[in-house]
Amino acid sequence: RYFVLMNLEGFDPKMVKKEDLQLELVDHWIYSRLNATIKETESYLQKYALDEAAKSVYEFFRGDFCDWYVEMAKVRLYMNDDLKSKQTAQYVLRNVLETALRLLHPFMPFITEELWQHLKIEGETIMLQSFPIADESQISETIEISMQWLQEAITAFRNIRAEANINP
User: Fold this and answer.
1) pLDDT recorded at residue 119
2) Could you report the per-residue pLDDT of 28-56, keeping only the tens digit for each?
């Protein structure tokens, strides 16, 4: 049911070769944000700043992933005839979701376990999965600045449309 919401029903990441993926700016950005969040969360946890660690994970999951990446991926999933672009978006969605659930697990164990079971992610339980390790090679300030500019432009266009009562 949850995979249908993200257009991942029947998608098998094992059938995808990473070298065949066509990563776009938004894909590089979400991986950069994910790895920066993992690094930041690990730093907070080492300082026993659990509130800051939880806030960091929450802001990534809700803001970066759900509010921005999932919304931008919808165009590639539903309004695109480019199969490779769609497959790349599906791969990134599933991969980031799986990692984000492992990152979120210490803060919301019952919810992440329930989602893990419903999504049928590899492994019997999320409790036996390792905590994510940041891949610093995927963190890019340049990509994050480019995406920030795009986000600001989209937000400005949405505000203009709302103020002028223009339908989407």
Assistant:
1) 82
2) 999 999 999 999 999 999 999 999 999 99
pLDDT over 60 at 161, yes or no: yes
Using CA atoms, how far apart are residues 148 and 110, in angstroms rounded to an integer? 33
Position 5 pLDDT exceeds 70: no
Task: Reduce the DSSP state of residue 135 to 3 states and report it.
Answer: coil
Please name which of 116, 117, 49 lies closest in space to residue 57, comparing C-alpha atoms.
Answer: 49
pLDDT at 6 over 60: no
Residues in the chain: 168
Buried b (16+ CB within 10 A) or exposed e, 21-37: bebeebbbbbbbbbbbb
125: left (phi over 0), alpha (psi -120 to 50) or beta: beta
Quote the strand ranges of the chain, DSSP E: none
Q: Which amino acid is at 81?
A: D
Q: What angle do CA 90, 100, 143 make, to 5 degrees?
A: 70
The sign of the dihedral angle between the CA atoms of 61, 114, 5, 17 is: positive
User: Alpha-carbon dihedral of residues 135, 147, 5, 15, nearest 10 degrees?
Assistant: -50
